[in-house]
Amino acid sequence: MALIITDTNFEELVKGDKPLVVDFWAQWCGPCLMLGPIIEELASEYEDKVVIGKMNVDENDEVVGQFGIRNIPTILFFKQGELVDKHVGVAQKNILEEKIKALL
Description:
The chain is of the alpha/beta class. The chain has helices at residues 10-14, 30-45, 61-66, 93-103; strands at 3-4, 20-25, 51-56, 74-79, 82-88. The chain has a single domain, classed as Glutaredoxin (3-Layer(aba) Sandwich), CATH 3.40.30.10.
C-alpha cells in the first residue's frame, strides 16, 4: 500500500536508504483518482526496493511549495535525496514502472 507522505515525514523519507516516489494528488482531482490504483499496485510490487507514497496537496503546503507543484497529478522521483525525475499528468503503469526501474 502507498505510504501517506506529509510535510512532517517527507524529509526523513527523502533522505532514507531507498529511492522515493511521491504522487501529489487531491481528492477532488479526477485524473488523480484514476492514477491512484496504479500507484497502489506499484507500491505493492516495489515495496522492498522503493518507498512509494501519496501526498495530498490540500494538506501539505510546505513540500508542495518547495517543489512548485502547480498541476496534479505530479509524480516526483528521488534517489539519494535528490530529485531525479518528474512526471505530470496521468500515465500508464509501464511508463511509471520504467521510471521506477531507473531509480534502482
